[in-house]
């Protein structure tokens, strides 16, 4: 029996429709660059993750609410763990991941668990790519068709003990309550997992930056509002694909694109594509983007403002503008007393005013401020 572990439901759903790829499918549903990772594994860890994910989904958002309870999230994690505890029932296990931060952290967690079964290593395979010849703007395996995924399956590579051990080491560093193990990895090439070094650097950049106290994602959001791109080829490509799927004339896609770009206001869809255009390896999902927008707009000194376009709450027609405080934050010009007090997690590190670790872009390391 085969087991396919994927980076989410999109790829899992396509594999389930394939006539060539057989077996069970396990979708790894977690956003590991954000929120508490209080241990490498265990029930306390899973409960903390479930609580954080549920709280995030309950935040105000212009997106349709996802109707899922915290208990259902915990049960999903429990089902995942039950599969991991019985890997010996499978004669082939294939991991399907891509190059970005979101996937590489999930891959590290998967490898941590697979490393407990090194006697089965000849049955472990990895599919992990960062581009595809047939896709102009490759953001992940979800961009591919079923037939393209089937070709990737034929090209799968057997995992090595070295890769299992490195994945285990990375995951333990992410789960540590200090970033010092991560700092050690940041200075190494990590060649056996070719996308991992860049992903870990990107993870470290989600800590507050030494110069302005913003994470890199928050910086990109504010930059996108301060100086939005005047051309978004990814958006045009998406609109063309949508028109083709609906059997419409491509000229309609061109018109929609021009209408969006001619407007001064920045709505969620345009902001999301703007971020994808400037992020080297896009990983941020729409729910997590709205989480960041909620945070930046609800600070005591708000970094961005939301125009609800006559509505009393968030919706897809709301537009976003950077505030004067947001401009000052980008420039690193806020006084210490104007900056928000930190209280969030990056992996196993709880970042607070008393435990304030930040990214030093010159040293390319995480440093503690006293």
TrEMBL record:
InterPro entries: DUF1835. Residues 3-121 form the DUF1835 domain. It comes from the Bacteria. It holds the Pfam family DUF1835. This is DUF1835 domain-containing protein. It comes from Agarivorans aestuarii.
């Amino acid at each position: 029996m085969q087991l396919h572990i994927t980076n989410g439901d999109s790829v899992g759903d396509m594999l389930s429709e394939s006539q060539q790829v057989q077996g069970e499918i396990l979708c790894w549903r977690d956003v590991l660059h954000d929120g508490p990772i209080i241990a490498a594994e265990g029930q306390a860890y899973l409960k903390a993750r479930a609580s954080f994910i549920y709280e995030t989904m309950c935040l105000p958002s212009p997106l349709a609410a996802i109707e899922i309870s915290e208990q259902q999230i915990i049960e999903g994690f429990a089902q995942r763990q039950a599969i991991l505890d019985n890997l010996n029932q499978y004669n082939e296990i294939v991991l399907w991941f891509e190059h970005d931060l979101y996937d590489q952290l999930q891959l590290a967690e998967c490898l941590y668990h697979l490393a407990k079964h090194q006697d089965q290593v000849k049955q472990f395979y990895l599919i992990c790519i960062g581009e595809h010849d047939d896709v102009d703007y490759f953001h992940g395996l979800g961009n591919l068709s079923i037939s393209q995924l089937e070709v990737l399956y034929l090209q799968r590579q057997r995992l090595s003990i070295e890769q299992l051990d490195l994945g285990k080491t990375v995951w333990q560093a992410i789960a540590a309550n200090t970033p010092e193990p991560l700092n050690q990895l940041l200075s190494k090439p990590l060649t056996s997992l070719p996308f991992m070094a860049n992903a870990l650097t990107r993870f470290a950049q989600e800590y507050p930056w030494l110069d302005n106290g913003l994470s890199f994602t928050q910086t990109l959001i504010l930059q996108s509002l301060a100086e939005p791109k005047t051309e978004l080829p990814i958006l045009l490509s998406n609109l063309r694909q949508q028109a083709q799927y609906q059997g419409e004339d491509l000229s309609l896609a061109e018109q929609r694109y021009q209408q969006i770009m001619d407007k001064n206001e920045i709505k969620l869809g345009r902001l999301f594509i703007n971020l994808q255009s400037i992020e080297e390896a896009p990983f941020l999902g729409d729910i997590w983007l709205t989480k960041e927008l909620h945070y930046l707009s609800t600070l005591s000194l708000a970094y961005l403002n939301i125009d609800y376009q006559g509505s009393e709450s968030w919706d897809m027609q709301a537009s976003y503008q950077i505030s004067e405080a947001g401009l000052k934050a980008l420039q690193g010009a806020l006084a210490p007393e104007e900056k928000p007090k930190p209280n969030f997690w990056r992996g196993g590190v709880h970042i607070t005013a008393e435990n304030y670790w930040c990214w030093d872009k010159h040293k390319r390391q995480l440093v503690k401020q006293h």
